[in-house]
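Encode chain A's predicted structure.
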Amino acid sequence: MSWLGAVQAQEFGPAKWALGLRLPETTTEAALDRSFDAGRILRTHVMRPTWHFVSAADIRWMLELTAPHVHQVLSHYCRKLGLDDALRTRAAAVFERALDGGPLTRSELGAHLVRAGITAKGVPLAMLTIHAELEAVICSGPRRGKEFTYAQLAIRAPRAARLPRDEALSKLTRRYFRSHGPATIRDFVWWSGLKTADVKRGLEINRAKTVDFGGTTYWKIGDGPRQPPGGPRVDLLPIYDEYLVSYRDRHAVPHGPMVVASRSHGGVRFQHALIAAGQVAGTWRVTRTAGRVSLDVFPLRKLTRIERTQLGQAVERYGGFLGMPVSLKVWGQTP
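Encoded structure for chain A:
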């Protein structure tokens, strides 16, 4: 994960698969669950704002670099909810004291607020926890069954480093362009929330190189992302995968089919993406029941024989990650 910097993770299960895809094929969901519960992987609001996975070693310097932007984005919502600076600071102190006794769920933190004379449920309570995350007071704790908990960041990541700003800026810039590049300055501004001047400074420190393509200037640091062996391949990318959400300019990989109108929730809804030769070639849906997983694939076009074989291999790898067999149905395809 340190290679990528951070991984978007508001959907916990799919985000684990995003990590699994980038780790050795022997990596399992159970192993990632153990790493999360042990605190080697943390989940917090560090950019945009949304949940991200970050390593315990990186969480402090990364928050110090990116939190000001997230605070700015959320300030409008906090004002509408009547959550002023003093109240948010007071709530963070209540959370810190409450977590002296060990990890707590969000509702349990809310109960501690009530005892302190602060009533906050639903969205206001979520905003108060996010503020405490951004202030490096709390972060994810181990799960309690299917429930998520919070813990004190100082306990969860006692050796997390703090860095001078230029060093932190250099490190985050290097990690993004090394793993996501070539990419534009606009892409990194979107992904990180940093100002354009900061991004240019980070590129300068790293002596980044430019690549011009189609009238657009792209930047890269080092050799860029690691290329998979064997040429073009088929992948089952989870919702909000870094390959698709971490770029502002999406000319290289248009992914309109991933986004559909949502009648139940309004606005749009994102879907898992079937990728063939680097392009969105369809969507997929997974259904999990006790001891069984069914995967439905909806291609946008007819898959070639080689792509069907590679899809089978991708499904097999997904099953190995989950630790159970996966049945596959490909819709709209003739032999």
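The longest strand covers residues 279-289.
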